[in-house]
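User: Some background: our group keeps a shared notebook of sequences we're curious about, and every so often someone picks one and asks for a predicted structure to add to the entry. Today it's my turn. The entry only has the sequence so far, pasted here. Could you supply the structure so I can complete it?
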Amino acid sequence: MAIKINGATLRGIHGHCVSVEIHIARGLPTFNIVGMGDTAVKESKDRVRAAILNAGFQFPLGKITANLAPADIKKEGTLLDLPIAIGILLASKQINIKNIDEYLLLGELSLLSELRSIKGSLPIIMEGIENNFKKFILPNDNKKEASIIDSANIYPCKNLHDVIEVLTKRIEPYKKKFMNNYKEEYTIDFSEIIGQHSAKRGVIVAAAGNHNLILFGPPGIGKSMIADRIPTILPKISYEESLECTRIYSVVGEFKEGLIYKRPFRNPHHTATKIAMVGGGANLMPGEISLAHNGVLFLDEMLEFKREVLECLRQPLENRSIQISKSTGKVEYPSNFMLIGALNTCPCSKLPCTCSEYEKNRYLKKLSGPLLDRIDLFLSVDYIDYDNMKNNSKQISSAEMREKINIAREIQSERLKKYKIQTNGEMDMSMVKKYCILDNAGEKIIEKIYKNYSMSLRAYSKILKLSRTIADLEERDRISEGDIIEAFQYRRFINEVI
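Assistant: Of course. Here's the predicted structure to add to the notebook entry:
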């Protein structure tokens, strides 16, 4: 008679429930695991055998078959160690459990029968809840992460004996439910940046519509300072966004204490590889663009990144998601991030510049036309003279900037809620036609710009999206001529510098 235990595996940021079926037959002692398990799953045979013996139980002699169903889904990692071990103990009648079907078991076993922490317990529990499971047995180190889900009964265990005690006795579930009492606090503020009024205005527009942004100018004048402070002006992260971000961080093993309460800000070094940026590898893990989901991806010294790394951003910037395919399978990760790049306009990094026009053009050509077409704003960060630097006049604060941005975001969210998007930067062409309504003067100026600069349809829609955001900041229904001109000014970098 076969024994069935409920387990789970990960695929991307989603859990998949797995039935672990154990059958022990007469014959030469063998232990086989079938059902498309990866190397880590196959190696669980040795871990399970040692854990059972070191826990004081007998490892049965016979032909043991562990089937992981459904067999057409690849199983990865060490999550199935615990259900395989419990299934063998049940099949060999060393323990007796009547209500095993009520539990979903997760955990990696050490050779000493201890339970080690696992990655991705949060998305697995969410999947379990959807499949009508209420009771979850998992490693003690994962109890804080698992307690985020209020409706789940969590039974954290330190070793195999604790698991058997939970299954055979009436043990109360873990009571300390997660409370997210964190406050969003920042130690930096836009008021610390002197001058740069036009750049700050552009940052407000970019943050209000979730538009991609490049800051350019001489070295050492505040590009990185501006980028570092952009999270301080973005709207507070919602519960749904926070939960989605936390799921991603749970999968990669970067779960901290609770739900992510700040929008992610990722700042990878320019030596990052394609896999580090977009994700992939042997286990198809998420990369920086997914870890920046619902937040900011900042590429400092953007032109120092390898061209192939920058080019792989083109599809995620357009689709707000990334699909990773290998011979072992295919996963899709969300990547709805705000891209911020910072770059110098020449390689010499001197003031004044000593580069020739040829050297400047060659340096800037690292950014391809198709990639630049996907950037909404290009903001010049200018050199500040001594008098302005010593000026003690009050600078606009992050709180003041955020207040303006929140008003514009509320307008966009109400307008676009039926499409399940929240910002103008996410609109497709059909939405642009429907909601980017111009007055007569605006129609004439956009026609003139389109004809004179021979721009692509993507660039045309970018200008309209930007204009829509500028109008939203002023709380106007129609886009005016001034909105179009301001939006076009933010894209002059493509025509004048490159």
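Suggested note for the entry: The longest strand covers residues 14-25. The longest helix spans residues 398-416.
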